[in-house]
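Quality-control log, excerpt.
Job 1 of 2 completed; input and output follow.
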Amino acid sequence: MEMRAREDIEIGEDITPPIPPLSYALHHSFLHSHCYSCFSPLPLPLPLNSNYNNTKNHHHYYYCSPACTTTRVVSTEELHILQSHPHHPFSSDLRAALRFLQSHPDDRIAVYPQNFSWINHSCSPNASYRFFLSPPPPCCSNSTKLRILPQHTVLTKDDEVCQDNGPKIVVRSIKRIKQGEQVTVTYTNLLQPKKMRQSELWSRYRFICRCERCSASPPTNVDHTLQEISSANLDASSLSSDQNVYRDYAIRTLTDYIDDAITQYLSFGDPELCCEKLEILLTQGLLYEQLEGREVKSQPTIKLHPLHYLCLNAYTTLASAYKVRASDLLGLYSELDEHLLEALDLSRTSAAYSLLLAGATHHLFRFESSLIATVANFWISAGDSLLTLSRSPVGSEFAKWDLPIANPPLLKCICSKCSLMDNFKAILFHSEAQNADFEDISSEFLDCVTIITQKVWSFLIHGCRYLRAFKDPIDFSWLGTSKYSSLRDVQPHLCSTAEGPGYTLQERMHIFQLGVHCLLYGGYLASICYGRHSHLTSQVQNILDCEECLINDSHETD
């Protein structure tokens, strides 16, 4: 079972019309907040009228309109599941399966038809997909032809007819696909090394991936980087004879340590302790004797490659945890004092980790283009963090302390050296991304952000020893050179509010300019993956509209 391209397909093009599900059911956690038929959010609290409340089923589910009450008729068996086990974790699965069996008694169980369900997995996919809960926009209409077909199978006209019920799915190319080439998507997180991907795929889907990336020998550059560790000051004679066992044990220990730190943040609400633990791990590493339970004279340490997948997880968590800590301080204190100065330090550290994460994953993206969706998310997050820092209320209060800061004229900070803004406007208001210019746009973007970053990076990383080891969070060409050794010698030194460089007007303008670039490029990549009407491109538009960067009256109807 596989799907192949009927024709040559360029990057960033829809290759299916909106595909409806064979069966679908609202997740049990949304039974009281979304329409049971179309999944649309309901106004809360619910008004007391028949459009929403369904007295016959004792309020186990709700509809958004009289029309939806007729499009989704609940069977006696389904109502029994709702009444007996409304919050069971498998309630929605059972209801979806029940609906499918009632409507397709002779077919094998699936959620979507073969137009989508026969698209296989790859760890280096050439396509992605997106869902539409509401009616798809005009650019994704049913008139879009199906550009893929099963191997050795000819689809009939009826196979291409798209119905109007249920959340629809659209498949889109993220690479150039040749006629006859198999179309693939990913079933797992691509920023994991091969062993973790294989384990997850087997656990969930019971198959061993043999895609080009997994079959590569030696491992691809990306997979090698995602799992590389270093043993500083450790002689080969000190290692156990089984290198693989040693490496696996080291990774398990490091993973447990990072998971424990993240749990402190997510489960126990202690972002400060989480930051402390992760910073110590990144800067100090783990002592070899902690792994082997024995003493060694040289006190070697085990450290992760700065682009190791555990480091990427740590950067993601630190960016979020520092942001929460800054937000908490701003919520507690209103007058400028040491607490608000600390909030500024935390905000800039959060922005620095977001920028490092975007730059690191972009470096991997250069070797594995299927990471485009992940990279789009990280650039958008970095841009949002930088804009949040640029408009921080702390900065506007610095003048009271006779520090050289004022609110910058943000509209005058738009870069005139690249076409990102014009390109993004064209995507939003007129057409899809001009993907033939992808390489030029990416090169233009990297040139601009590299120049701007050099002007603000020292300010963003002040007080954080681990980040100070990165001379440039965008250019990672120094990896594998003698400069990489500086990261191995970093000593633990937590972020502090020690007196540092002033937050000048010029720095604030550069930070804003950098944030806009990151948002625009992330939005551009998102439009390739998901189209111009995706939630990510809308998120970028909304953020920039708040900054008055885009002119809303230039919208045109499709």
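Job 2 of 2 completed; input and output follow.
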Amino acid sequence: MQSSPTWTTVTPYSTSPADPERCNVTCFQIGLIHIFLKLGYEKRKPFYTVLECFLERVRRQPDKALIIFEGREYSYLYVDRQSNRVARALRTHADLREGDTVAFFMSNDPSYAWLWFGLCKLGCAASLLNYNIRSKSLLHCFSCCGARVLIASEELKAAVEEVLPTLLEQNISVFILSKDCNTPGIETLLDKMEQASDEPISPELRSKVTMSWLLFCLLGYPKAVVINHDKLWAITLYLSTCGATSDDVIYSPLPLYHGAGFNLGLHGAIERGMTVILRRKFSASAFWDDCRIHNVTIIQYIGETMRYLCNTPEREIDKTHKVRMAIGNGLREDVWRSFQGRFGHIRIVEFYTASESNIGFMNYTGKMGAVGRENFYQKRLCPYALVQFDAEREEPLRDSNGLCIPTPEGETGLLVSEITSAAPFLGYCGSPEQTEKKQMRNVFQKGDVYLNSGDLLRFDKDNFIYFQDRVGDTFRWKGENVATTEVECVLVALNFIEDACVYGVKIPGTEGKIGMAAVTLKAGREFSCSEAFLHVSKYLPPYAQPQFIRIQSCLETTGTFKQVKSSLVREGFNPSSINDLLYFLMPRDKCYKPMTQIYYNSVIAGELRI
């Protein structure tokens, strides 16, 4: 087995505002390390996989806790031995072989780790399913990844049973994380693991694995993001770039099906030899108590979780903790300021990337509101730019030669990054159409190919980078990506809706956009408030259910029949300025209700929690 490569750990200088020159030097130094650290891995150890990194940690610190979950510790050695049992059980009872794919439909649980490494030891890939999806969405996401095995948490058994006939028709092997199950067609896995040996798995079973080998897919609607060893290393090393060490303890309340939770929270911690405090679900009320109990030093966040923390009742012990750093993305400047003012001067490391992206930025200096800073060497290695974007047509502007137009300094533009051997785009699993759609050709010269990030950013005069908005067919709400096409398909399945146009609208004081739909009704039909509620509740997770529905006589389209959403987004959901019928979702009453000015005012004032 190859040993781990070595490098000098860089601990950043203070990012105090009183020392701006030192901050800039630190940004420069760490920026170089961030760019070349992954290249150093590949140069020294071309086949140093994530699994080898984990096994190296097992040898060095077998008894150290890798995961602490609900009061119980799971050591590096325990996870390793359990993964050996997983590999043998699945090889025997599911006939898994190198190159096969297994889908995880699981809640946050330590077994995620040993199931994952069990697959790695067989040279198999995993597909991570969002445990909130159901029915057709679940089947669609599963079908994208080409998996021949599904493993589900026991508490998700009912959701699996709903789609089981289709899975069995496709000869999919279905396992539940339990010792007992009376549902025909679903096999138990825990009992099979107990009967299997925990002795090491022969590397010969994964002899074909390379750094470009498919590791896992992050499954969303309508596409599945492909992650290989190279890609995972690029994200995993964020923690080491920030100066994290094996002495740190990271608190990760994010779901493991999420790229941030799985890539950074779990694998980033393993690369550093850290302990992960894992929660089944995020809890704002329990967050700081957990941090105190476990002596947490690093917390992982998305923007909304920080806002939730700031909205909890203040306590005298708010600043009594050992947290020194928070790493994540999506943090608004006002929440950033409020968080540090209330919980102490915790170093916040905001970054920008996407699971499928070939570019990323990191805010090393702690500039409030920024997601990063331009770096000459990064831009030389991985060329990127902002181009002018037509918000009405939702497409980049092009000049008379058909080339994109760079955005002037200080103005908002669409981020595009060149696809090269140093910055590849791996595409989407089983979806060549979506892969092609994500690429832009003839951007600055004929024949070049760039990746369309789908995000609008802004660079200021000091080269700091600010996220502005997301465009295209997705928006983000409560830390989750919402695919407008998925919601539209669910809505038009109602027997009284003819067509639907789904988009996101801003609510003051929140991160992201909440879902809204403009719909047309079939001739002679009326909108049913109760039926609409029951339908979206059954087929969509809570974060994707449209909060507002607007009834229109027709939906505006372009000359190429593309829906026009920009005017709908601008008009929002204010009943005083919209003549159409408006409805809002009321979960407590299990129906949609007519929008009133009183309700609208309460939402805008932040008096109602949505």
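Post-run check on job 2. The first helix runs from residue 20 to 44.
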